[in-house]
Write a structure and sequence with these properties.
By secondary structure, this protein is an alpha/beta fold. It has helices at 44-48, 103-109, 120-130, 141-150, 160-163, 189-197, 211-216, 237-242, 255-264, 351-363; strands spanning 5-12, 17-23, 30-38, 56-60, 64-65, 84-86, 89-90, 114-116, 133-138, 169-171, 178-184, 200-206, 221-224, 250-253, 268-284, 290-301, 310-316, 322-327, 332-335. The protein has two domains: 5-150, Glucose Oxidase, domain 1, CATH 3.50.30; 160-363, Rossmann fold, CATH 3.40.50.880.
């Protein structure tokens, strides 16, 4: 099943408009959300199905999207949670031995609205200068402008509640050497694959699971996953993580890193237009090594609020923001970037092995 296109318009909250062709919406329908741009050259299926984009519309800076189609192996969650997709050119005839159909089949299957033919270079420049902002698209310009004026950003919204699992589930070999409980704030499938590959049996639990329930499972470690939106809005998360820090090894990625930072006493803040892409340079402070990383976040831990007893382990070389934390004297670490990539480089993939090393060391104490 593919989608038919109709002429339409994308309008941002500040009134800026972009013409295009609408897919997946009726003549009277409007899609809205916070508009962000992603600079990755490939990996559009993983990006669209990453739960961290809940509440957002994804504008791809690479001009040709859909070239190699979609397949059954590159889903990062049970379905897309993004509010829409914005592209310059949507390929209709993909070419790849892995392809099981065009990108439009995925969009149609999950009712993801899209707009193509947009001048995404102009859109990206505008968002870089003005910051990420809400927007809307559809075929009725008057309705779109009204929706854009009422669309909301992700500030203060608990988007995790919409993407987290409702029931616990298991991933990995029952005989694996390490038992890990993973908080699902919007966890990516590739993260679970990497944990299992590193030797972990992972029990994924809902985001609001009390710390006592996690500890009752007697894990060797606890993983804090990626996820969407404002870390300050995720109900109970900070308190639950704080209750774990002196009890069990902890490893956090992306939103999990931000929640860990808040549990340590640091504050978080929203970036102007976020980091969304697969080519962000990060310096590992202990070695001076520069790692090229995959990133997807709008919020960061404020460096000036990191408390004594915690160490900044990684720094973003583009803007100096905090990319990693460690709790001195405890097996507690986190990173803002995505060591699992999907898409992106694998420079930081060693972090999964470091997590298992922390668990192994803790078990011998």
């Amino acid at each position: 099943m593919t989608l038919e296109t109709i002429p339409g318009v994308l309008v941002l909250a500040d009134g800026t408009s972009f013409e295009g062709e609408i897919l997946g919406l009726g003549a009277d329908d409007v899609a809205s959300g916070e508009v962000v741009f992603n600079t990755a050259l490939a990996g559009y299926q993983e990006i669209i199905t990453d739960p961290s984009y809940a509440g957002q519309m994804i504008a791809f800076t690479y001009p040709h999207i859909g070239n190699y189609g979609v397949n059954d192996d590159d889903y990062e969650s049970r379905r897309p949670f993004c509010q829409g997709v914005i592209v310059r050119d949507l390929a209709r005839r993909p070419s790849s031995w892995r392809s099981r159909g065009p990108l439009s089949t995925l969009l149609a299957r999950f009712a993801v609205p899209a707009i193509s033919g947009v001048d995404t270079r102009r859109l990206t420049r505008h968002l870089r200068e003005s910051g990420a902002m809400p927007g809307a698209f559809g075929s009725d310009e008057d309705a779109v402008r009204e929706a854009a004026g009422h669309a909301r950003a992700t500030d203060g919204v608990d988007l995790v509640a919409a993407v987290t699992t409702r029931e616990p589930y298991l991933v990995g070999d029952d005989q694996a050497p390490f038992s890990v409980v993973a908080y699902d704030y919007g966890i990516k499938t590739t993260i679970l694959r990497n944990l299992a590959k590193a030797g972990c049996r992972v029990e994924v639990v809902p985001a609001a699971t009390p710390a006592d329930d996690v500890l009752a499972r007697d894990p060797d470690g606890v993983f804090l996953s990626n996820g969407p939106g404002d870390p300050a809005a995720v109900e109970l998360a900070t308190d639950n993580v704080a209750a774990l820090l002196d009890r069990v090894p902890v490893f956090g990625i992306c939103l999990g890193h931000q929640i860990l930072g808040r549990a340590l006493g640091a504050e978080t803040a929203k970036l102007a237009f976020g980091h969304h892409g697969a080519n962000h340079p990060v310096r590992h402070e202990a070695t001076g090594r520069v790692e090229i990383t995959s990133q997807n976040h709008n919020y960061v831990v404020r460096a000036d609020t990191v408390p004594g007893g915690a160490t900044v382990t990684h720094v973003n070389l583009n803007d100096g923001t905090v990319e990693g934390l460690a709790l001195d004297g405890y097996p507690v670490v986190s990173v803002q970037h995505h060591p699992e990539a999907a898409p992106g480089p694998h420079d930081a993939g060693y972090l999964f092995a470091e997590f298992t090393a922390l668990m192994a060391a803790a078990s011998t104490r």
